[in-house]
Specification:
This protein has 175 residues and is α+β, with helices and mostly antiparallel strands. It is 38% helix and 15% strand.
Length: 175
């Protein structure tokens, strides 16, 4: 097992605006760092690349650097041991593995990101379910546009698409 400190920092978005594509289909443990290289989240996945994509849209301001250790054969025990060792090595539990875990691991719930005006329209007793779905979709589109704006500012060239079906439920998750 490799120590977290001995692994190289990989830019989340490289100079060509791409995510680390060589991690597609790779099984491994990854550590995500913010701009100041402070550890934000440690996770493991059967496809590190897909997980990194999801984390980027969920926590766009926290994903600047990543360190990865891949393994050949999937073993939850091995992956969990590395994850735990890295968190221990860090000296404290990263926010993404503690109180903010849902923000890193679950689809974005746009209901929590509604403006007061959107909340008032959504909670209006005079509207029906279809009108509520329309409001949720519009909020989802607004949040999606904000995320894409930040990614564009950071130079991301990789195409990302959110699952359109989930927007009706007020959730944003990559397809």
């Amino acid at each position: 097992m490799t120590n977290l400190t001995s692994l190289e920092y990989i830019p989340y978005i490289d100079e060509n605006g791409q995510l680390p594509e060589y991690l597609q289909g790779k099984i491994g443990v990854y550590a995500i760092f913010n701009q100041e290289k402070i550890l934000q989240f440690v996770g493991y996945s059967r496809d590190v690349y897909l997980s990194l994509r999801q984390h980027l849209v969920r926590q766009v301001q926290q994903c600047y650097w990543v360190k990865v250790q891949t393994i050949e054969r999937p073993s939850r025990t091995v992956l969990e041991n590395i994850e735990n060792a890295w968190i221990t090595e860090n000296g404290s539990i990263p926010l993404g593995n503690g109180e903010n875990k849902e923000q890193w691991t679950q689809p974005i719930n746009v209901k929590t990101l509604m403006t007061p005006e959107e909340q008032a329209r959504y909670q209006n007793p005079a509207i029906d379910e279809l009108a509520q779905i329309a409001i949720l979709k519009n909020v989802a589109r607004r949040i999606e546009a904000e995320i894409f704006q930040v990614l564009e500012t950071r130079g991301l060239q990789t195409q990302m698409r959110f699952n359109p079906k989930l927007k009706e439920e007020g959730l944003l998750d990559l397809k």
